[in-house]
Amino acid sequence: MSINPYFSSALLGLGLFSGTTLAANLDCMVKPEMYVELSSPVAGTVAALLVDKGDHVVKGQPLAQLEASVELAKFNQAKADAETNSEVRNQKIKLEYATRNRTRYRSLATTNVISQIEKDKVETEVVLAEIELKKAEERRKSAMLALEMAKAQLEVKTVKSPIDGIVIDRYAMPGESVSDRAIMKLAQVNPLRVELIAPTEYFGLIQPGMEAEVRPELPAKKVVKATITKVDQLIDPASGSFTVRMTLPNASDELIGGVNCIASFDFATPAVSTTPTLPPFAPQSAAPVNPVIKR
C-alpha cells in the first residue's frame, strides 16, 4: 500500500481510517561499507605480498613487505648502540672514586695535612666526573631516539591493513615499484551498507534510527535487520525520489556485498476517532426588523 504522507494525514484528520499499518517494499543494494586503495607511504620495491585475493584480513595485519635491507641494517646498528651501557657504567665508577677521594681529602684538610691546591684538585675531579657522566647519559638518550627512528623507518616498509575486510584485488607483484601507485584494494564488509532510492511519497515516513527487514538475493531466503543511518534531505525533482542509507551488521561474514535486495518498511499510523469532527454550531443572528414610520 502506497499513500502520500500529506494525503494520509488528511485522511486521518477526516477519520476515514484508524490504527492502520502502511507497508512498503523497496528495491535496494547491499554494498561494502567502504573500499580502500592501499598504498605505501614511502617509495620502494615489493619484496613479498603476504595475502592473496579473497583473503580476510584484520586491522593492523601485514599485507605487503617492501625491500628493507638498508633500514634493517640501520635498525640493528641503532639497537646495538642503545643497548650499550659500558660508557655510562664507566663514568659512574669514575664519579664514585672521585667522590670517595674527595671525602678522604676533606677529612685531612681539617688537620691541615694537605694544601689548598690538593683540596681544589679533588673537588674539581668530582665536578668533572659528574659532567662526564651526564654527557654519557645524554649520548645514551640520543642512541635510544636514533633506535626509535630506525624502527619507524623499518616499520613503514611493512604495509598493514587499516581495516577489517577482504582483499578485492592486487595491483603490484614482487619486484615492482610502488611509487605513486596502489598495491591492493580492500573492502570493509562488517558492517555492510544498504542503499535505496525511495519515492517522494515516503519522504517524512522513513526516519534515521528506524529498522527495516532486508532480503538480499544471496544468500537466498536470508532475512536480516538493517538500521537507517542517513536520509537525504533533498528530493531529486527529475526522478521524484530521495536516497536512504542503512547499516547492516555482518559479524559472521554470511552476507555478500554487491547484490540486490528488497527492504521492507512498516509505518504504523496512530489510532484516531472515526467520527468526523465538525465545527461548533454558531447560532445565526435575528433578521433585522424594518422600522415603522408614523406619518
Topology (SSEs and partners):
Blueprint: H1 5-14, E1 21-39, E2 46-49, E3 56-57, E4 62-66, H2 69-83, H3 86-109, H4 116-155, E5 158-160, E6 165-170, E7 182-199, E8 211-216, E9 224-231, E10 241-248, E11 259-268
Antiparallel strand pairs: 1-7, 1-11, 2-4, 3-6, 4-5, 6-7, 7-10, 8-9, 8-11, 9-10
Question: What does this molecule look like?
Answer:
- InterPro entries: BSH_CzcB-like, RND_pump_MFP.
- This is Efflux RND transporter periplasmic adaptor subunit.
- The protein is α+β, with helices and mostly antiparallel strands and 295 residues long.
- Among the domains are: 5-34 and 189-268, Efflux pump adaptor protein, beta barrel domain (Elongation Factor Tu (Ef-tu), domain 3, Beta Barrel), CATH 2.40.30.170; 68-156.
- The protein contains four helices and eleven strands, in the order αββββαααβββββββ.
- Strand 8 (211-216) and strand 9 (224-231) form a beta hairpin.
- The relative contact order is 0.22.
Fold-level CATH name of one domain = Elongation Factor Tu (Ef-tu), domain 3
CATH C-level class of one domain: Mainly Beta
- Overall 3D form: elongated
Low-confidence stretches: 1-18, 291-295
**What percentage of amino acids are in beta strands?**
25-35%
Span of the ends, CA to CA: 77 Å
**Class of secondary structure makeup:** alpha+beta
Q: How many DSSP H or I helices?
A: 4
- Give the fraction of residues assigned to helices: 25-40%
Number of strands: 11
In CATH terms, the superfamily of one domain is Efflux pump adaptor protein, beta barrel domain
Calculate Rg over CA atoms.
Answer: 41 Å
Largest sheet: 6 strands, antiparallel, barrel
What is the average of the pLDDT values?
A: 83
Q: What CATH architecture label of one domain applies?
A: Beta Barrel
Order of helices and strands: HEEEEHHHEEEEEEE
With strands numbered from the N-terminus, the spatial order across the biggest sheet is: 1-7-10-9-8-11
